[in-house]
Amino acid sequence: PAEEKAQLLQNSEYQERMVESTFLYLTLDLPTAPLYKDEKEQLIIPQVPLFSILAKFNGSTEKEYKTYKENFLKRFQLTRLPPYLIFCIKRFTKNNFFVEKNPTIVNFPITNVDLREYLSEEVQAAHAHTTYDLIANIVHDGKPSEGSYRIHVLHHGTGKWYELQDLQVTDILPQMITLSEAYIQV
């Protein structure tokens, strides 16, 4: 509750601290996958919009982190945008017994991903360009321990998309890229 939070913030143990750190990539957390099958006995493959998992960086969303020593809340806000942005979609989670893969499909636009709303107002004024276009998409297929990787790459000269897996290169429609289990996006 807000009243309890306000009281706790009075204690020195619960004081807010701000730490500014540079990043090489942004980690995007997926919602947990459903445990149950749908009425047709098929596994439900959930979908989530890119902008809902980017909400982590809006400066107001709090996320709880737990370690073996302590629990703490974190809020993230972008203070600067780099020329190239790398998203790492957190698909793999490790528990005490094994590694699990989250099959959630992230619905993302291939062009004009605008990050202006994730910047504070004073930072927005300093950035004239806040939109990004996808140029590469790395996909993991299969089980976490024995899967394979493939990559979708935009050929900048022709504007065509290609899928690369080992030595095999094939054309791919941009609409098919958004249906994959994206792992890393540039």
TrEMBL record:
<dbReference type="InterPro" id="IPR050185">
    <property type="entry name" value="Ub_carboxyl-term_hydrolase"/>
</dbReference>
<dbReference type="InterPro" id="IPR038765">
    <property type="entry name" value="Papain-like_cys_pep_sf"/>
</dbReference>
<feature type="domain" description="USP">
    <location>
        <begin position="1"/>
        <end position="186"/>
    </location>
</feature>
<protein>
    <recommendedName>
        <fullName>ubiquitinyl hydrolase 1</fullName>
        <ecNumber>3.4.19.12</ecNumber>
    </recommendedName>
</protein>
<dbReference type="Pfam" id="PF00443">
    <property type="entry name" value="UCH"/>
</dbReference>
<dbReference type="GO" id="GO:0016579">
    <property type="term" value="P:protein deubiquitination"/>
</dbReference>
<dbReference type="GO" id="GO:0004843">
    <property type="term" value="F:cysteine-type deubiquitinase activity"/>
</dbReference>
<dbReference type="InterPro" id="IPR028889">
    <property type="entry name" value="USP"/>
</dbReference>
<dbReference type="InterPro" id="IPR001394">
    <property type="entry name" value="Peptidase_C19_UCH"/>
</dbReference>
<keyword id="KW-0378">Hydrolase</keyword>
